[in-house]
Write a structure and sequence with these properties.
Elements (H helix, E strand, L loop, with lengths): L10 H13 L8 H30 L8 H10 L2 H31 L3 H21 L1 H15 L9 E6 L5 H8 L17 E9 L2 E9 L13 H12 L3 E6 L9 H14 L4 E6 L12 E2 L8 H12 L1
Parallel strand pairs: 1-3, 1-4, 4-5, 5-6
Antiparallel strand pairs: 2-3
Helix pairs in contact: 1-2, 2-4, 2-5, 3-8, 4-5, 4-6
Length: 319
Amino acid sequence: MFKKLPIVLTSEQLLDRAFKKTKKIQIIDRNALYRKKKTIIAKTESFSNFVVTTLENYVKFFPSIDNLPMFYQDIIEIKINKDKLKKSLGAVDWAKKTSQMIYTKQSKMLRKTQKIDILKQKQKEIYGRITSVVKQIKKELDVLADAQNIMRDLPVLYDIPTIVIAGYPNVGKSSLMRCLSKAKPKIAQYPFTTKEIHVGHIDIKEKHLTKRFQIVDTPGLLDRPFSKRNEIELQAIAALKNLADVIVFILDPSETCGYTLSDQNNLCFQLKKMFNKSNFIIVENKTDINYVESKNLKISCETKKGIKELTDQIFSFLK
């Protein structure tokens, strides 16, 4: 969705490229006066057009934030701040229109005069005024550059039945995703290994049809108030809130994740209250390490025990 976003230049880079383009322009004409005049006009037009077109493309190719699916809106709010991005796009649009107006007004004088010194003076004025406008949006271009880098890396999500995996850090969410789908998220033995949303797919064949389901691995959550959650945790909340048809909540009764089972159960209770419209499946992972008596489904991502039963339970909800 965001792969077509243009690479946003800094104000210095934008002006530098605009001036470099003008250096290559040289109009051929037998008449020395006309040659100089046409070259000055062509250079000025090239400079102005490059600035205007570049700024126009920034505004044109950034999507309308308010028309994006709510998951993307939430992620942009978490990572960038929607109002800040909107204001930056508005400032860039103003700079584009102002630069265009400066050239349009002055270009008539360029074409009328026959005096080279006046031509050069007008050219200098246009360069100076447009340069000043571009420098005024230095911070806004930096915001767009940051937004472009973040948005280009956002996962592609489809409007299909979606399973979201949640739980404390290091309980085996990424391992479960590898068991259920073709996705290969990073796995390591330390908290918050998963710092972004990862997306995989499961294809199920039924007779002559293949049904595709989406599975989302989320960053780890801690049992604490919403206001104290960090940016990594808020991404998980955004996925649970906007994407989940089925939530698979993983518990680690072995507590090798570094968190007590009591804290994990508290988090599960809180999420069930928050997202009571989603189907919940509570599973206990790492049963190859520690097994406790409970009504929860028992699995081991290491031995693959219970994965088939979990898959069947997921699809019983999605059907």
